Amino acid sequence: MAAGLAGMDDTLEALREALSWPMQYSTAAVQLGVRWPKGLLLHGPPGCGKTAAVHAVALECGAAMHLVTAASIVGAFTGESERRLRDVFAAANKDAEAGQLVVIFLDEVDSLCPRRESARQQEARIVGQLLTLLDGATALGPQCKQVEHGKQRLGHILVVGATSRPNAVDPALRRPGRLEREILVPIPDAAARTSILRLLTQRLPLDGSVDLQQLAFECHGYTGADLGALCREAGMSAIAFLHTAPRSMMRLVTADDFVAAMKRVGPSMARGAAVEYRPINWDDIGGLSAVKQQLKQAVEWPLRHSGAFERLGLSPPRGVLLHGPPGCSKTTLVRAAATASGATLIPLSGTQLYSMHVGEGEAILRETFRRARLVAPSIVFLDELDSLVGKRVDREIASDVTARVLSSFLTEMDGLELAQGVLVMGATNRPQALDAALIRPGRFDVILYVPPPDELGRLQALQIHTRKIPLTADVNLATIAACTDCFTGAELAAVCREAALAALREDIEGARRVHPRHFTFALGTIQPHLTAADLAEWEAWPERAARS
After folding, report:
1. May I ask the CATH architecture of the domain 9-184?
2. By three-state DSSP, how is residue 510 classified?
3. N or C: where does the chain have the smaller number of CB atoms within 10 Å of the terminal CB?
4. In angstroms, how far is CA 152 from the centroid of its own chain?
5. What Å distances lie between residue 383 and 299, 427, 442, 447, CA to CA?
6. In what residue span(s) does the AAA+ ATPase domain sit (predicted)?
């Protein structure tokens, strides 16, 4: 393993093959007619170790490194950039003629060689010069020979480019004969994260409570750079303890330090897409036991018991649709599912998708799903789903923009078969406005009706909403639950809040507890917006949708 690197075995092996094999097996290559790759393109998310891997393998193989970056090449005068490029390749050729292994490393190659149709004149000239030099320099390859003291020595030049935006690189650079082999450097999986954490914590005095394997499992979507920042923050958390207790002895880094560090350092790929939210437990939601159990099966089980799913040949659901009246905790249930599963929650709203620019909404949708795949396990949550993707047959609902967004969304959902650990969750209180293509099996596989809580659920909800409200001993929440039929969770929360406000209105200075009369006043003020007939319509929707 290259010094200072872990969890990158495939990438390192591919670099070793391309760099050292042409000299080690030059005779066999001639006999077999093998042509070695002249260039590699490493691509992957930022922070995954692309640059570090190239430097480590070059050092390991004793290769001369020639670094090319946009900052070192681009000059202020016409022709200066092209001259600097020629100087780099001339120096590389000189080393190769001396029988050395040579690496010409094009770091951030997308900024050096952008697509010429959108590039400025200077950038286009740099691209053209680089392509000419690549065709000339890499032609040396293992054919560059020198006779020294009666021995024949071989020199070899390998051109390696690295980028986090491969589609921004000029296509001419990626054709065979130039950067012909492309290597994806992915975000490390759980096993790779464990290896990286073991390497990063070698100098950290860890407490026995730190389980690196469990920590690696919880760090979904973290790159190597993110894990390095996590370990640094955990160490700083231990130092902060010494700062508050200066007389204490040296303290070990504990599991609590890593928990605190994870609140400050998240996966960099999720920044700008994931949402920070207050963790919610299943017990923080009153009632809805059947819905909770089905959500656990759809969200938690595929992650916690993936081995059992594979053993029985089961595939996790691609999508879960929650529908029901407003105020019945649909969004809260999604947050609880994300908290329990440890998945990254990535929300999408209509304000993000709909733009005055044609195609921008579809691009945002594709980028969201791309990030979700990188930081899996993740949940892509579309609240008020009916406002995002209406029925295409309804001209009043479905404009051209809506139809395009819906088509892009269906395409992304169909592509989730290759994205393990990505779940789409939608919530709506107008399921009849959804396009039929959304709710077929294979897209939203699980459709759950979220009803208002029953009497037991209302009692649990009242107990939850009055946790911080001081009540007198004669307040009977069970009686209140019995007389609040058809109340939603949001309306029960409003009843508790209105009762507390009624106590303040009586005596804002001296009020200490909430009395039964305050709840009586609140119940007279707040009325349910649903009737039994409305609930019957909600319950019948899945059956009607299946028939249609």
Report:
1. 3-Layer(aba) Sandwich (3.40)
2. coil
3. C
4. 52
5. 17, 5, 20, 15
6. 36-189, 316-454
> Phi and psi of 20, rounded to 5°?
-95, -30
For the record, the structure tokens of 347 come out as 């929300």
Q: Six-digit token pair at 464?
A: 């939850």
Task: For 25-44, write each residue's pLDDT tens digit.
Answer: 777 877 787 777 888 999 98
Q: Can you name the residues that pair with 428 across neighbouring β-strands?
A: 323
CATH topology of domain 282-449: Rossmann fold (3.40.50)
Span 214-227, average pLDDT: 87
Q: Which residue has the tokens 């979220």?
A: 450
190-270 — its CATH code? 1.10.8.60
CA distance linking residue 429 with residue 325, whole number of Å: 5
> Which residues have C-beta within 8 Å of that of residue 519, sequence separation ≥ 6?
475, 480, 495, 499
Residue of 379, 360, 372 whose CA lies nearest to 426: 379
Rounded-to-integer distance, Cα 165 and Cα 109, Å: 9
Q: pLDDT value at position 138? A: 44
Q: Which residue has the tokens 């935006």?
A: 165
Q: Which amino acid is at 516?
A: P
Structure confidence by residue, pLDDT tens digits, 374-393: 888 888 898 888 877 666 65
Q: Are 492 and 523 in contact (CB under 8 A)?
A: no
CB under 8 Å to 442, separation ≥6 — which residues? 318, 414
pLDDT tens per residue across span 187-207: 888 888 999 999 999 888 888
